[in-house]
Specification:
InterPro entries: Membrane_assoc_protease, NA-bd_OB-fold, NfeD-like_C
Membrane topology: Multi-pass membrane protein
Distance between the termini: 73 Å
Largest sheet: 5 strands, mixed, barrel
Number of helices: 4
Keywords: Membrane, Transmembrane, Transmembrane helix
Mean pLDDT: 86
Main location: membrane
Order of helices and strands: HHHHEEEEE
Subcellular location: Membrane
Strand content: 15-25%
Number of strands: 5
Length: about 150
């Protein structure tokens, strides 16, 4: 059976289009390997079918490994933006400005919380600068905290 270079190009494009229906970001790398094999086969048309399959398999593994090693870790959102209240509850921060009279206090987190590292808060207990507090609830744009022992 003779497999022409453009067969691999079409196969690669179909795999990449399949990513639209199965958003796992896995088919994309198999498709990219098929496109690469199509380019290789264009310049080396006498490559046997088993060699083609080995090249496609190795290419798929290499692209997938590169994805997990180098690209995916940079795409992790550490801000927790858009995450529900349950993800915020239990986070611990340091009071940088205690609440006074009608003014709310300000708490700072080591990692940004919902996209910001400082938040206004109201507390159920008296807080001082440097106290560690734990988020117990969210009220509008204000965190509700309690002092953490």
């Amino acid at each position: 059976m003779v497999i022409l270079w453009w067969y691999w190009l079409i196969f690669g494009m179909l795999l990449m289009l399949g990513e639209l229906f199965i958003p796992s970001f896995t088919l994309f790398w198999f498709g990219l390997a098929a496109l690469l094999l199509g380019a290789i086969l264009y310049f080396l048309p006498d490559l046997s079918l088993p060699s083609q399959l080995i090249c496609w398999t190795v290419g798929s593994i290499v692209f997938t490994a590169l994805w997990f090693k180098y690209f995916k870790p940079t795409m992790i959102d550490r801000t927790k933006a858009g995450i529900s209240r349950e993800a915020v509850t239990g986070q611990t921060g340091i009071v940088v400005k205690p609440p006074q009279d009608d003014l709310r206090g300000i708490v700072r987190f080591a990692l940004p919380l919902l996209g910001n590292d400082e938040w206004e808060f109201i507390a159920t207990e008296t807080c001082q600068v440097g106290d560690r507090v734990e988020v117990t609830d969210v009220s509008g744009n204000t965190l509700v905290v309690r002092r953490k022992p």
